[in-house]
């Protein structure tokens, strides 16, 4: 009897082992053991061969094991700083030998409140928490022993809903900081900062609202020639699969309103708030990017590595939908502008989503041009930073 019971336990254990190895392992990019030289350069064994790029382009891994990698910025000495939304940390990634692969990653801050946004200026790293802007002075000289941060500003709302922030310095020398709506859809007239993009001097003074009616912007850039401000915005949820579209907006001057919560995508009034103000009152998007694609980071390309046809075009990370019956996004888009108008909008890179099975293994978040003209792309699902290059 005991022998039979032992045999049953053995069979049950083997069955569990087989089930565990066969059902979930293929969905976890971190479970594979490196076996080849290529695997050693890609220890997570991500299916990079699934990424479709234009002819001549190649994607590789620049940095592995960067948990929840979000916004990217580069220091004067080449350090790549990475924001983090879920884990409360900020990372510094260093390529010591110049082989375009990260050699060491430092955690320069932890225990912060969704420090998604990072930007660099005059030797200092600026970090955005939900309600504060922090500054780490002389950070590249002290990666192993970071200085105590200076609190630049601490009066942003404390709401965590859309509280994560992308930040960057504009050509006017001011720090631009978005403040998302603290909800899916609501009218918060009690604080003009809600659903806006603000800006301030580097020392935290002269804070003002630059643009209003912006539900949740997590990426923006200035055109390298016109210096005009362009930004992405995420549309509201629960109006169905196809409404509303995420947006690419152009804000060449202070004081423009882009519709939220009254009007979406420039032409669709909100069912709850739309009767209060017509869509004609607001600035429509320069480009509809697609419903629920989660448009995040963007940069205008000015490098020399990519073909000349890419010069001044904007790369936009479409993070991917979370509540659409058929997933959308999970790609890099390319936008061409001329005279303040969008003249081209198309896919540049895709393959993070298996369209047939509707399963994703990666989600692009931010893009960053490097001095050599290559482009880094963060991924908070695969926990890596990619490097995209071009050669004839």
Explain briefly what this protein structure is.
The chain is mostly beta strands.
What does this 3D model show about the protein?
The protein has 2 helices and 29 strands. The N terminus is likely disordered. It has 392 residues and is mainly beta. The chain is 7% helix and 36% strand. Strand 23 and strand 24 form a beta hairpin. A 5-stranded mixed beta sheet has the order 10-11-12-13-17, with no helix packed on it. Strands 1-29-28-27 form a 4-stranded antiparallel beta sheet, with no helix packed on it. The chain has a 4-stranded antiparallel beta sheet with strand order 2-3-4-5, with no helix packed on it. The protein starts with a helix and ends with a strand. The longest helix has 22 residues. The protein has one domain: TolB, C-terminal domain (Neuraminidase, 6 Propeller).
């Amino acid at each position: 009897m005991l022998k039979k019971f032992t045999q049953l336990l053995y069979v049950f254990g083997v069955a569990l082992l087989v089930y565990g190895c066969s059902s979930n392992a293929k969905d976890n990019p971190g479970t594979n053991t490196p076996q080849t030289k290529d695997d050693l350069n890609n220890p997570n064994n991500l299916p990079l061969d699934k990424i479709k790029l234009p002819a001549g382009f190649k994607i590789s891994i620049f940095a592995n094991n960067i948990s929840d990698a979000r916004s990217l910025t580069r220091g004067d000495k080449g350090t790549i700083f990475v924001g983090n939304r879920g884990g409360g940390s900020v990372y510094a990634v260093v390529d010591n030998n110049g082989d375009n692969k990260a050699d060491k990653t430092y955690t320069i801050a932890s225990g912060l409140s969704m420090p998604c946004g990072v930007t660099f200026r005059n030797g200092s790293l600026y970090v955005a928490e939900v309600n504060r802007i922090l500054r780490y002075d002389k950070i590249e000289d002290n990666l192993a022993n970071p200085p105590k941060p200076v609190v630049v500003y601490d009066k942003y709302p404390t709401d965590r809903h859309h509280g994560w922030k992308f930040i960057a310095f504009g050509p006017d020398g001011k720090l631009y900081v978005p403040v998302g709506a603290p909800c899916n859809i609501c009218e918060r007239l009690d604080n003009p900062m809600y659903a806006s993009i603000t800006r301030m001097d580097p020392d935290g003074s002269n804070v003002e609202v630059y643009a209003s009616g912006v539900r949740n912007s997590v990426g923006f850039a200035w055109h390298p020639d016109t210096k005009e401000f362009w930004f992405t915005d995420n549309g509201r949820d629960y109006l169905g699969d196809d409404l509303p579209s995420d947006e690419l907006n152009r804000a060449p001057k202070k004081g423009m309103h882009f519709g939220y919560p009254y009007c979406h995508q420039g032409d669709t009034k909100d069912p709850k708030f739309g009767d209060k103000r017509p869509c004609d009152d607001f600035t429509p998007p320069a480009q509809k990017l697609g419903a629920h694609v989660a448009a995040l980071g963007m940069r205008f390309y000015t490098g020399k590595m990519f073909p000349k046809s890419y010069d001044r075009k904007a790369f936009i990370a479409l993070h991917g939908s979370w509540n659409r019956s058929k997933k959308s996004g999970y790609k890099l888009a390319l936008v061409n502008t001329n005279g303040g108008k969008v003249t081209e909008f198309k896919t540049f890179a895709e393959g993070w989503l298996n369209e047939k099975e509707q399963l994703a293994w990666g989600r692009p978040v931010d893009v960053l041009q490097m001095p050599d003209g290559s482009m880094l792309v963060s991924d908070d699902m695969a926990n890596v930073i990619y490097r995209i290059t071009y050669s004839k």
